[in-house]
Amino acid sequence: GQQLNQSPQSMFIQEGEDVSMNCTSSSIFNTWLWYKQDPGEGPVLLIALYKAGELTSNGRLTAQFGITRKDSFLNISASIPSDVGIYFCAGFQGAQKLVFGQGTRLTINP
Amino acid sequence: GAGVSQSPSNKVTEKGKDVELRCDPISGHTALYWYRQSLGQGLEFLIYFQGNSAPDKSGLPSDRFSAERTGGSVSTLTIQRTQQEDSAVYLCASSLSNGNYGYTFGSGTRLTVV
Q1: Which pLDDT band, with edges at 50, 70 and 90, does A34 fall under?
Q2: Cα separation of A89 and A20, whole Å?
Q3: Whether pLDDT at A98 is above 60
Q4: Residue-wise pLDDT tens digits, B17-36
Q5: Residues A79 and A15: beta-carbon distance below 8 Å
Q6: Which of A4, A86, B18, B22 has an alpha carbon 20 to 30 Å from A27's alpha carbon atom?
Q7: Burial class, B2, CB count within 10 angstroms (exposed 0-12 / middle 13-18 / buried 19+)
Q8: Helix count (H) and strand count (E) of chain B?
Q9: Closest partner residue to A45 among B4, B50, B102, by Cβ?
Q10: B2 touches chain A (CB under 8 A)
Q11: Nearest-CA neighbor of B34 among B83, B74, B80, B1?
């Protein structure tokens, strides 16, 4: 099946720093989604991208859908403690099955 | 309901026993999905339902795993003769019919096989 590769696997940053993570695939995806998972909870949708080249913001979060449709990045500006968690990229394989990357674990030092 | 509800939230079972995990999707969501998340790993697709039928069950790891959905609502994931490698968090999600706006996940059932 299609694989989504996320990098970095983990990040340790200081509060207030900006964060950048990305997701790549060898296959084309028509939709890219970014989720965040807090400990003990299910993933929550942050941003959805539907068009190649699309740049979308949600507060301090910005995500872009790569022109080739094989990659996406997520940026978080001015990180705060509640940004801690695991960030997953996801894309649709076929019409209905959502496949996920392995996640980027974000840790913030106060 | 307001969100996707899963029960139990935690389950400890002895190796070889059968377990049933339950998922109540958001009212009106016709699509329902089961994923498995092993410790520190990403989400592994298991099965998805459209209404009561399962067009894609390709992710079920073995014939010990089965799932059903009744009334287009509640779904049950059953694991027979549990093994230690079945220990994981089992996540359920639901969506409107085409799922293109992303899924809404429940908080999961943490299964520990001892």
Answers
A1: very high
A2: 13
A3: yes
A4: 999 999 999 999 999 999 99
A5: yes
A6: A86
A7: exposed
A8: 0, 11
A9: B102
A10: no
A11: B74
Supply the pLDDT for residue B26.
Answer: 94
Strand, helix or coil at A50?
Answer: coil
Judged on CB neighbours under 10 Å (0-12, 13-18, 19+), B3 is middle
A101 contacts chain B (CB < 8 A): yes
**Average of per-residue pLDDT across A20-30:** 92
- Evaluate the omega torsion of the peptide bond into residue A8 and state whether it is cis, within 30 degrees of 0: yes
Only one residue has tokens 């950048």, namely A20
Q: Does A91 touch chain B (CB under 8 A)?
A: no
Burial state string for A31-54 with b = 16 or more CB within 10 A and e = fewer than 16: bbbbbbbeeeebbebbbbbeebeb
Measure the CA–CA gap between A46 and A104, rounded to whole angstroms: 14
Lowest mean pLDDT among B23-27, B38-42, B91-95, B109-113: B38-42
Using a CB-CB cut-off of 8 Å, the residues of chain B touching A25 are: none
Whole-angstrom Cα distance, residue A89 to residue A13?
20
B81 CA: distance to closest CA in chain A (Å): 26
Cβ density class A78-109: b for 16+ within 10 Å, e for less: ebeeebebbbbbbbbbeebbbbbbbbbbbebe
Residue of higher predicted confidence among B100 and B37: B37
